[in-house]
User: What shape does this take?
Amino acid sequence: MIVAGGALVVAACANLAGPDYATPDLPEKSTWSAAQAEDAKELIQLDWWTGFGDPYLNQLIEQAIADNVDLHILAERIYLAGLGVERERVSKLPRLGISSSTERTRTPEGDSKQHAVNLSGLSWEIDVWGKTRKAVNAQKAEYLASEADWRAGYLTLVSDVATGYFLIRLLDEQIAQQERALLRSEQILEILRDQHREGLAAYSKVLQQTAEIRSLTNQLLDLQRQRTVAENRVATLLGVPAGSLQIPTAYLSDSVRLLGVPQGLPSDLLARRPDVIAAEYRVLRAHELVGNARLARLPTFSLTASGGLASATLASLLSGWSMGLAAAVSMPIFDPTLGLDIKANEGQQRIAAEQYRKTVFTAFEEVENSLTNVAARKQQRAELESGLADLRIVNQGIQAQLREGIASQLEVFENERSLLSVQQEILALHQAILEDTVTLYKAMGGGWPRTVVAGSQL
Assistant: This one.
């Protein structure tokens, strides 16, 4: 009867830990721009970047995953979080200390010695209400959040390497276009010089063309500067000193193919994005800490043991031993900090829930923006490619007229500028489509498996 009554008391007090964990409420999202909301879990592989068809890019990403410093830091944080779980587990286990002493006493009857060995600190708090379990669960949630952080860092790293590489390839092709434009301008300059010597062109036209060449040269130097900076950035991502990485020249349109946009979006997007999963694990951690703070108001049950050895001679020390065991119950009667601790942990839980919601809304925004950007930029590129074909026909006619001396220098300048501008804009759009595709795959979880955050798994 007494045991049954005690069990009822324990069950009633255990409810003071609060309700079971529940995922924070979020607005439902069932439709997406330019896509249907269907399960696309089979459409995204963990090594999705290989779909770009560039072996050199694959090599760079593999090196980055192995040597990136930020990824190493995130891995160490997982290790530390695991140690935190173990520390919480052992913090309530019995601890044992030992001390020894020798006491010499002088009396008129003579000298005497007393040898003693004492055990200290042997105590054990019995986790009746589950306070220790709550603390361990909170640290487990942080450990799982750290694992999700590593996955998010992995996705960010892969995305940064890919977009940095695409920028370098874009600059390679823009530099080649600029060099061709510079060569054509130098050829035009030679034509103008010949015409000037024959009295068919004013010297001012020669000076104008010379100024145009200087402008193109300046732009070429800036493109080369941008490539070096981009290469240094990729080197840092790979974990090598800037300046030591030499990426061979290749053209974006030749070396990288467009990766198809998944035909559908995962209906369980929020269970696949590592940053969303990490944010929810931290909500779960805060929930467990609230329960731990609430249970701190309940009585504490502990066992304390003490013992020692004492003898006047070392030879008989083992025969003079004593051991004691005591049970203790302590209960806070008036401690205003306990209520404040509960309120503080509840506040942290609300903050974690809002941060989780913010992460989810950011995920929705990134997917929507990527879908919109990819679709719009593909349309823009198609329009520019049609205009480029027309400009090339016009350019051929102007070049023929220039050789015959019937085209004006202004016409040549304007057509060359327009042609180069459209070519580089098409290239920039191609690079932007690649970058938006990378962002889309990252926003959709990058192929990581589905994870459901629940208190029962701790």
Summary: The chain has nine helices and six strands. The CA atoms of residues 10 and 129 lie 7 Å apart. Confidence is low (pLDDT under 50) at residues 1-12, 36-42, 308-315.
